[in-house]
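Morning. Coffee machine broken again, so started the prediction first thing and wrote up yesterday's gels while waiting. Chain of 432 residues, entered below exactly as on the submission form.
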Amino acid sequence: MLQDRETKLDVQSAWLQAYISSSEKQHQLYKRTLVVVVLSQIFGGAGLAAGITVGALLAQDMLGTDSITGLPTALFTLGSAGAALLVGRLSQRFGRRFGLTTGFLAGGIGALGVVMAALTNSILLLFTSLLIYGAGTATNLQARYAGTDLASSTQRAKAVSMAMVSTTFGAVAGPNLVGVMGEFAQSVGIPALAGPFILAAAAYILAGLVFFILLRPDPFIVARAISEYQSTTSKVEKNSNLLMTNRRGILAGAAVMVLTQFVMIAVMTMTPIHMGHHGHALKEVGLVIGFHIAAMFLPSLVTGYLVDKIGRAFMAVASAVTLLASGILAAMGPADSMAVLITALALLGLGWNFGLISGTAILVDSTPPPTRARTQGSVDVGIALAGALGGGVSGLVVAHYSYPALSIAGAGLSLLVIPIVIWAGINRKNKV
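Came back before lunch.
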């Protein structure tokens, strides 16, 4: 038995050594990984968007009140925070394939739980399932890192951009299938608002299976082996002052992403409720959210180019200005105008896109390799918690004040990005 184990280890070392010693094999695996990530993100985007579109409406229908209809978004965003830690640790220990597969399957199980909750009219099961459903959201975001494991320093932004853009295809299709899935659900005796969660379950499970079947060899395991080999053949000088020098940059990058996430989730969560109060049909809600999610992801390739060429600070400020315009338009435009709602929510998504990519770039610029992954993980949890808070607070604000008041508050809050960027001292050359 011991001999068999040693033979297995020798075989494993042999295939890893083949990648360590061949830059051509590394590049081939990098390209293959990108294809797998793109395919999985199409399914993952559909799972993410379908649930977001009707989660608040389902809670409103089951609870009979608007005051806590932001709670579904808060729950699956809170669930995504816990899942971000879990998926990250599983990936660190067992590789991306295991971690991402587990996260997506958990999200699919959560979506099925929501369907069962609607069938049984169980509020407790609904809230528990939404929490688990959040694992799909976290995994969908973390999947983009798989493409960067074997990317060179000049390929990483492209890898992340490709993952975010591919999410758009599923994310736009998901909301626009809301009506179809609602009709299908009713035809089999399931409440119409639970229909999109059937789609979400299938999409997340398929995304998990894509990783489980196709992500071989695991790029993270290969990248880790290459890093360990390089660390034994060269000495890297450590600069303890680097963390002190870039601490402001770390805080600034995190703050930009946290603020834009909070504002985006808060306004997005209550838009379907606002539209319902003004006579918009479920298909119209799906169309507006579809444009919103497209604006969140589709501009990524251009945004990445602008962040690198024009600068992190400029694009972070552009994020604040875009969110400001979105909030003013949503608050002051006619509530029965589809054109106004589509434009406002598209600007909301675009502002989030600017903030996420510029904030990520600031964070990476400001973090040395020995602590980069740990710092990024902590910031991702903060982003998820900000989304949970935004979703939870939004329902209370609309219930006690109004949707325009929520939009204006979000617009004002987004402007905090500007003094934060100035305080961090991020200059034209993207240095802190």
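Residues 1-11, 236-245 have pLDDT under 50 and may be disordered. Going to sketch it on the whiteboard this afternoon.
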